[in-house]
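Here we describe the complex-level prediction in full. Unlike the single-chain runs in Section 2.1, the two entities below were treated as one system.
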Amino acid sequence: MNRLTENLSGWGRYPVAQCGLLRPERHKGLGGLSAEGGIARGQGRSYGDAALNQDGAVLLTERLNRLSAFDSERGTVTAESGLTLRELLDVVVPRGWFPLVTPGTGYVSLGGCIAADVHGKNHHHDGAFSRSVLEFELFDADGAVRTCSPDVQSEAFNATMGGMGLTGVIGDVTLQLRPVETAWIQAQHAPARDLEQALTFLQDNEHDARYSVAWIDLQSRGRALGRSVVMTGEHAVRDALPAAHRADPLQLKLRGERNVPLDMPGWLLNPLTIRAFNALYYRLEGRKTSPFIVGYDKFFYPLDALGHWNRLYGKRGFVQYQCVVPLEQAHETLRQLLDALAASGHAAFLGVLKRLGAASAGQLAFSMPGYTLALDLPFGGAATLELLQRFDEIVLAHGGRVYLAKDARLSAESFRQMYPRYDEWLAVKQTLDPQGRFSSSLSRRLGIGEPS
Amino acid sequence: MKGTVLILGASSAIARATAAAFASRGYGLYLAGRDEEELARDAADLAIRHQVPVATGRFDAEAFAQHPAFIEQVVEASGELAGVVVAFGYLGEQSRAVHDWDETLAIIQRNYTGAVSLLNLCANRMEQAGTGFIVGIASVAGDRGRQSNYTYGSAKGAFALYLQGLRNRLAPAGVRVLTVKPGFVDTGMTFGLPGMFLVASPRYVGERIARAVERGRDVLYVPWFWRYIMLIITHIPERIFKRLKL
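The structure predicted for the assembly as a whole is:
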């Protein structure tokens, strides 16, 4: 296989690593890492260094995106791991099916969804992506293919779900889908004046919707600290649609994508513009308090409408900090995080707060019952890293953890403390990959694969 | 359904994208190639995405004696052909071909004689039926001989000349013949090669091919600017060209 040496980064564009890229065109090419090792990469939508391998091989799965089975009666679909959710949606939505779990972008591969055990706005009801996976193939370190499911090779299954690609390369994936009557979402927004009210809305079982998430204004201070717009949604039934959409309820005219054509200057996102944007957003979105109908793409993937939006941060890139904190003391923990942010003088452009339900079975999976907070920060060197270190301390003190799919800078020591089931995971890793061939810049930074 | 398009050499990236472009326009497909496992995967994918019938079969471009039976088998499975796309080919290694007759012969047969053998059969059927289209994927390498790939280039150039003659012969019968000359396309063959520029995605190339067929075009350079690059290259006087390291 030809090899292309290139400087590569994740979605946050920090850090950058020189990697040797391999790009198989045929299914068996997914076994191409077994001899020399390396890491698989789907769409490169993890933010930090999870799909980077400094001075090593990175196997691109983007050409392996074929669907091999679709059962329109039972709602199961099998496809190669390089297929994106966007491509899957194009096929299954017009036939009345929807992924059980989807993250906030459609430009992710199925393999990436498994490796990070991604979650969506319905985690508190339906769990993480692993809940929708019936089976997958795993090309292990010997190039042998194992079929893994919750019942067969369940150890390998669990270690791979959230295993950051370090157990092998994922081949075919079989998913269970959810039946839907329409391609539309019935959504509703509620403004929350502060953090406490936002949390109240998110755990309010009476108004509980299948999908919920809070956009949080990270520039608000004092009494308005944690001011949010809580957004909820359900799959709309056909009768709820306006007459114009009722005839063909599963057809959605997808918007054309606009692109950020080039790197924006670094000063574009500064505290002033970020504050102005957030205040405007709170006013406009907080107003939509009566139910409205919106296409699934706009509800789930608002940022996908702007291609290459990571260029808004300019060449320096950005980091996303996403953590989960346990339910008990969640309010206190989150308040401390927001206070630390405010005290630092950093401006975070985008903040998202979301309730999580039961933990996944994966030993390295991110989710636990509690709240997850995600915030985007322009990368500002040592000062940014210092702030995130402070965040780690707060999160650790309250029994939370950082999401590896977003991470670019956690320490190995904090990782071990945040992921107490690491030893269990390592035992499975050693059976699948005794020589430690599958590794990435992330795994080496965090000491994943090394004995504790 | 609009009838079936036979894709010969179906597992290359350009062939896959061309097949998808025809399937999205409502054509059924017959995918032919050597790697049956890959063909089955391509077939399932295209059938699910586009909801058209897709059949597969194995063929060997160099097994001339088997070609008539193979074409019969395709027609039996999928009916009279609406179109055929010759997408197989073999770049080979020029430096090896210089000393190794087997390599030279493989390059010639898998780019030229194999295609002629199969297209003769298809052309006769289409001429008789008075309808159909033929797409041959030649190469810009066939426009001028260069030391780095002239065996491949001569076979592709001969193929382009064959297609030109075929077009002339079949025009009265209402059968269209499209010659495609791709420039740099982002495939497994070109991935990571030095000196690549303005590389087109296979998907773009596939769409352009299907569109050129719809519009009854004769010769398609894809991406389009290769027509002008080759115009310049073919006009360099031989006296100068022979001294260039190309």
